[in-house]
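Appendix B. Worked example

We walk through a single record from start to finish. Start with the input: the chain for Transcriptional regulatory protein DegU, Stieleria maiorica, length 308.
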Amino acid sequence: MPIILVVDDSDVDRLLMKGLLSADVDWLVSQAKNGVEAVDMVTYALPDVVVTDLNMPEMDGMQLVSHMAESFPEVPVILVTGTDDSKIALRALRHGAASFVPKQQLAESLLETVEQVLAVRDADHYDERIVQLTTNTRYRFVLGNDPTLISPIVDRIQQGMIAMQLCSATQRMHIGIALEEALLNAMLHGNLEIPAEKLTETRNLLHEGKTSPIVEERRQEQPYADRTIHVAADFNRSRAQLVVGDSGSGFDVDAKWPASGDESINEEAGRGLVLIRTFMDEVLFNETGNELRMTLNNLRPVVTPAAD
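Next comes the structure step. The output line below is what the pipeline stores for this chain.
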């Protein structure tokens, strides 16, 4: 049973988040009133995910993110942000937060975000004996518009990174979330052209493991039915590169690709883009807007302590 630690100095907001997380899933939700209390609880028993508000006394959300990244990097932290906290949210992502949810989108996005982070966190570990034998890893996938394939592909690529001990747990989680967002974008926006007003509901259903009626309908219809997604992943000891392309009509990159992720941080449709741009060093669309290339340089390898 996953343990979710909710941290907020407001009793009302804390109970609201607990209610949202307890509604439809079998999770144990614990609570802390500030960062100091949260650290004490984490030290006693590690949760699977921490969800924290930003503005709190004694130790605020940003300080908690930094502390968790340094002392408990295996525990992902999701930051809940206010309307005017976009720059702070981006800074938190760069300092180790796994994701963020704008406070005005809690009802629509909190459950989905926690489910996403948990899924990415739960990649299996490989036999460490093969680590030193691997210098690079490449994956190539071609998939149809089956949402149930997204998590296994993300897991498979993460397992390859674990096998090579390429990067820290935080970097690996960031890459996994960026890849999942790119795959969802390629499938829902690119291939199936799901209307914007139905995207939040569709994503929530998929992350809960449920069937989306509009996805199933369009998978059987032309021109959507025959469209595919191409995925390429290339890793070496210093760089990770991911390419996700769809068969849709794309978009006008010059007109719609924002100069900065800040422009769409509080829009649900742009939240995935913010995560990708923050977690990866280079993010480029092709000219037609139906292929996304993501690169992360300067991977931080896992250091295995020497045996006594």
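Two observations about the output. The two ends are 35 Å apart (CA to CA). The first strand starts at residue 3 and ends at 7.
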